[in-house]
Amino acid sequence: MVGRGVHLCGSVPLSDAAAVFAQVATRLGGHISRLPDGETGVRDNWVVWQLPRLQAHPALVTVPPPSPEYGPSERVQPAPGVDPASIDFGALGYAQAARESWRVFEQLRDQGLIRPGVRFQVSLPTPIAVVGAFVAGPQAELETRYEAAILAELDQITSAIPHEDLAIQWDAAVEFALFEGVFPCWFGGDYPARLGGVIERLSRLGDAVPAGVELGYHLCYGDFGHRHFVEPADTSKLVDVASGVAVALSRPLNWVHLPVPKERADPGYFAPLAGLATEPETTLYLGLVHASDGFEGARRRIKAASAFVPEFGIATECGMGRRPAGQIPDLLDLHARLATSLD
Predict the structure, then answer these.
(1) Which pLDDT score, from 0 to 100, does residue 72 have?
(2) Do the Cβ atoms of 273 and 237 come closer than 8 Å?
(3) Which of 12, 148, 238, 303 is most buried, judging by how many CB atoms fall within 10 Å of its CB?
């Protein structure tokens, strides 16, 4: 098989963007072509930092969830008398963070620490991620309003950063929670209908990324408390989404990332990858690197996957943000060692 480098999903729990850029650029070198800022500080637990922003919105009130749920246990809904279609979510914070980190990226690149050609990667949540986890209702209307807000953030990011230096990743996890019945779904009564709704949404988000900016998707089964909301039976639903989006997009898809649970080194998990309908220029990254079983565990999963896909890159299942900072250098070194073994 042929290796296609290393991908970082987004979060890296170091002190700040400069520390993340320096550690990743130094330890992964030529194995990586995109650098995220690590989503440090308040952003360290993926979209959870959006919940207090929603709770502070004057048109929304906080309510308990309908039942015990995976992740944070509060939701919001429009205050009495508020028309949900009138709600403007305003600034979400993603564009501000990206602009600040971009300045650091430029400085380190000018100093030679970041090599030429490496892009600055910005990971953004899909509206389903926030609405599915944090909105009690009406979810359809507030999804529309949140989508308008996140696309405004995207526009600010792509206006501030040169397109040839930028890569945008859409993070899709709650979509799979809707498929699996973990969270209530506001569209589609069965899996085919929900799948169609997800593909339509994800491809619309992808097509909003301007030409010249790289585009990728991180598909996920959750990492809250280092556990999935359910264990995926195999890669079939992941392949359904990745293939559907790849076909529906009207622009190039540069990469897609899929998780691989630590326990799965069996052919059954990877077999659906043989039907992945992406173009050759789309890099597949498999999240099969787990700190707890290291090089040998990853090599077992690599061997199983390579029976169905001849080329792929490597990654962890999700971001690294829920890990102790002290584990990060060794984890990055593990990625480099594995990537070298595949070259």
Answers:
(1) 64
(2) no
(3) 12
